[in-house]
Amino acid sequence: MRLVVADDSVLLREGLQLLLAEAGHEVVAAVGDGPAYVAAVLDLRPDASIVDVRMPPSHTDEGLRAAVEVRRTWPEARIMVLSQYVEVSYADDLLASGEGGTGYLLKDRVSDVDDFLRSLDSVAEGGTVLDPLVVQQLMGRRRDPLAGLTPRELEVLALMAEGRSNASIAEALAVTLGGVEKHTQRIFAKLGLLPDDAQHRRVQAVIRYLRV
């Protein structure tokens, strides 16, 4: 199996390469940041990729965002997220996107190498493998109507609640007007607001935000 590995820890990256090579797999690229991961996967089209969640520059959710970006371009990509943390801000987007297999395992809970390799094989074959703690946190989010929003979408919604126009939001966040419009459409979709009346949806989204 041809694999791409992305982790900012050189030791872990090298260790994964050795482990995978011993299992008979070929690591065609090993990188340390999100953009390099996206470029490697889209260029080399591996059978599967392994990506950490927290990578440079902010060490928050770059890996998950990069994985979502890969899926937008290549929906069939097989992606295994391997992290020390449960970061669910983009996990729903990754799980809901594309037709490819998806895995999200916690590093500290991968105690059996054979189990990990079996999980990786399952993802490469199109299956879904989730750590129980990831499932628990994803289910907990769904009880909160705003839990499915990304940090950027929450920023946009907060500015909407201040009564700002899309142009004003774009200026405040230093993004394009088209970017704001894309975020608002995703907010409406995630909140289940139908496109009957754009202004009405905006008001309803703000009401839900203020209630929370």
Number of helical runs? 10
- At CATH level 3, the topology of the largest domain is Rossmann fold
Structural class: alpha/beta
- The average pLDDT value, as a whole number, equals 86
Number of domains: 2
Strand content: 5-15%
Q: Could you give a short account of the major beta sheet? A: 6 strands, parallel
In CATH, what is the homologous superfamily of the largest domain?
Response regulator
Poorly predicted spans: none
* Outline type: elongated
CATH architecture of the largest domain: 3-Layer(aba) Sandwich
Computed over alpha carbons, the radius of gyration is 19 Å
* Percent in helix: 40-55%
Quantity of strands, as a count: 6
- The strand line-up of the biggest sheet is 2-1-3-4-5-6
Overview features:
single chain; 212 residues; alpha/beta; Rossmann fold; Arc Repressor Mutant, subunit A; 6-stranded parallel β-sheet; 6 strands; 52% helix; elongated
